[in-house]
C-alpha cells in the first residue's frame, strides 16, 4: 500500500463516518425541509440498502470484478450521490440519491478494509483497526455537523461530504493491492493453502455473525440495564456512550500493543477479556465502568477477523463481502435474541445474556484457531 493511497483512505473513512452518522441526527431537519408528510426515516434505510447492495454485488462478482478500478469508481459514485442529495429538489430524488451514496459507502468500506488487510504485511491488523478508528471519529463528528448546518440547510452536509471526498482520489491506488496475489496471513504449517468460500471459511463467518450481533446488542441494551440499575433515562443514554468511546480508543491502542502476536492468538484473547468485562457488568452499579472496558477489549475483534480472512482467502474481496453479510445478519438477529432472553428480566439478566453470547463467540474463535492450524 503506497502512502498516498493510505492517507487518502483515512480521509475517505473520516468522510464516510461523518455522513453515515449524521443521517439519523438529520431527520428533524429533513422533516422541516421536505415536509412532515414524508417518512424521513426512510433515508437511513435507503442508504443502508445501497450499502447492502454494494456488498452483495461485490460478493457475487468475485473474480469478474475489476478490483483495480473499484476504489476510484466507488469514490466517484459516493461523491456523485452526495452531490445529488445536496441538489435534490424533492424528497423522491433525495431518497434515490441517498441509495446511490450508500452504494459508494458500502463498496468503499468493503474494498478499503480488504486493501488495508492485505497491504501492510505483518502490520495489517494494526492498520485495519486504525482505519476503522478514523471512521469512529467521523461518526462522533457527524451529529455535531448535522446540528451545525441543519438550521441553514441540511443538504449542505451532503455537499460538504462530496467536496471533501474528491481530494481523496489517490485512494484509487489501493486497487493495486487488491489486484495483487494473496499473501500468507499466518505462520502456521498450513498457511500456504488458500481458503475458499465454503466450509473452510465457515468458522470466520460464524465468529463474525455472533460478534457483530453481540456488539450491536451491547449498544442496544446497555442503557436499558442502566435504567433498571437506577439511572435516569437521560443519564443512562449519556453513560452508554462509554462503550463506543472504549471501542474507539481500543482500535487505536490495543492492536499497537499486540502487533507482534498473530491474530490466531489475539482474537480469543480479546474475546476472553470482553467476556470478563461483561461478567463484571452484572455486578450492581459496576456496569457503567464495565461496558467501556468491554468496548476497549472487544474493539480489535472485527478488524482482526477481516485482516485474517483477507489474508487466507483466494478472492479476498469476495470473502470479506460474505463476512460483511454475515455481520449484517448478526446485527439483525442477535439483538432480538438478547431482547427475548433478557429484555424483561432484572438488571443483571442483560449482561449475563451478553456474556453468554461472548462465550459462544469465544468458543467459535477457539474452533477457528484450531481449524487454521
What form results from the Cα inertia axes? globular
Helix content: over 70%
Strand content: under 5%
Sheet/helix structural class: mainly alpha
The number of helical runs is: 15
Q: Roughly how many Å apart are the termini?
A: 28 Å
**Biggest β-sheet description:** none
H/E element order: HHHHHHHHHHHHHHH
Q: Could you describe the 3D structure shown?
A:
- The protein has helices at 3-34, 42-61, 70-87, 91-118, 124-153, 155-165, 175-179, 202-228, 233-239, 241-257, 263-280, 287-298, 301-312, 316-342, 349-371.
- The protein has 373 residues and is mainly alpha-helical.
- The two termini are 28 Å apart.
- The relative contact order is 0.14.
Short key terms for the protein model shown above:
373 residues; mainly alpha; 15 helices; 77% helix
Short précis:
It contains 15 helices and no strands.
Question: What is this structure's SSE topology?
Answer:
Blueprint: H1 3-34, H2 42-61, H3 70-87, H4 91-118, H5 124-153, H6 155-165, H7 175-179, H8 202-228, H9 233-239, H10 241-257, H11 263-280, H12 287-298, H13 301-312, H14 316-342, H15 349-371
Helix pairs in contact: 1-4, 1-5, 1-6, 2-4, 2-14, 3-4, 3-6, 4-5, 4-13, 4-14, 5-10, 5-13, 8-9, 8-12, 8-13, 8-14, 8-15, 10-12, 11-12, 11-13, 11-15, 13-14, 14-15
Amino acid at each position: 500500500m503506497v502512502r498516498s493511497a493510505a492517507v487518502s483512505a483515512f480521509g475517505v473513512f473520516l468522510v464516510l463516518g461523518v455522513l453515515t452518522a449524521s443521517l439519523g441526527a438529520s431527520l428533524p431537519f429533513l422533516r422541516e425541509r421536505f415536509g412532515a408528510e414524508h417518512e424521513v426515516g426512510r433515508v437511513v434505510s435507503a442508504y443502508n440498502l445501497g450499502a447492502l447492495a454494494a456488498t452483495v454485488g461485490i460478493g457475487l462478482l468475485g473474480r469478474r470484478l475489476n478490483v483495480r478500478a473499484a476504489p476510484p469508481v466507488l469514490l466517484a459514485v459516493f461523491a456523485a450521490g452526495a452531490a445529488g442529495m445536496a441538489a435534490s429538489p424533492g424528497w423522491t430524488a433525495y431518497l434515490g440519491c441517498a441509495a446511490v451514496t450508500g452504494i459508494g459507502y458500502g463498496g468503499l468500506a468493503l474494498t478499503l478494509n480488504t486493501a488495508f488487510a492485505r497491504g501492510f504485511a505483518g502490520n495489517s491488523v494494526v492498520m485495519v483497526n486504525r482505519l476503522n478508528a478514523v471512521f469512529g471519529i467521523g461518526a462522533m463528528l457527524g451529529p455535531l455537523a448535522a446540528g451545525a448546518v441543519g438550521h441553514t440547510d441540511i443538504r449542505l452536509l451532503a455537499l460538504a461530504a462530496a467536496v471533501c471526498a474528491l481530494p481523496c482520489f489517490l485512494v484509487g491506488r489501493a486497487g493495486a493491492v487488491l489486484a495483487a496475489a494473496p499473501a500468507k496471513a499466518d505462520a502456521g504449517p498450513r498457511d500456504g493453502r488458500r481458503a475458499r468460500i465454503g466450509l473452510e471459511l465457515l468458522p470466520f463467518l460464524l465468529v463474525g455473525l455472533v460478534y457483530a450481533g453481540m456488539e450491536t446488542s451491547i449498544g442496544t441494551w446497555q442503557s436499558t440495564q442502566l435504567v433498571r440499575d437506577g439511572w435516569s433515562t437521560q443519564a443512562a443514554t449519556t453513560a452508554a456512550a462509554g462503550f463506543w468511546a472504549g471501542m474507539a480508543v481500543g482500535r487505536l491502542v490495543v492492536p499497537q500493543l499486540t502487533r507482534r502476536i498473530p491474530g490466531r492468538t489475539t482474537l480469543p484473547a480479546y474475546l476472553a477479556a470482553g467476556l470478563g468485562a461483561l461478567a463484571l457488568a452484572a455486578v450492581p452499579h459496576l456496569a457503567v465502568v464495565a461496558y467501556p472496558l468491554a468496548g476497549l477489549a472487544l474493539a480489535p475483534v472485527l478488524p482482526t477477523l477481516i485482516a485474517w480472512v483477507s489474508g487466507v482467502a483466494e478472492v479476498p474481496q469476495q470473502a470479506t463481502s460474505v463476512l460483511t453479510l454475515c455481520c449484517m445478519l448478526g446485527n439483525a438477529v442477535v439483538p432480538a435474541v438478547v431482547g427475548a432472553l433478557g429484555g424483561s428480566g432484572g438488571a443483571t439478566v442483560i449482561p449475563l445474556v451478553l456474556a453468554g453470547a461472548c462465550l459462544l463467540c469465544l468458543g467459535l474463535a477457539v474452533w477457528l484457531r484450531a481449524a487454521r492450524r
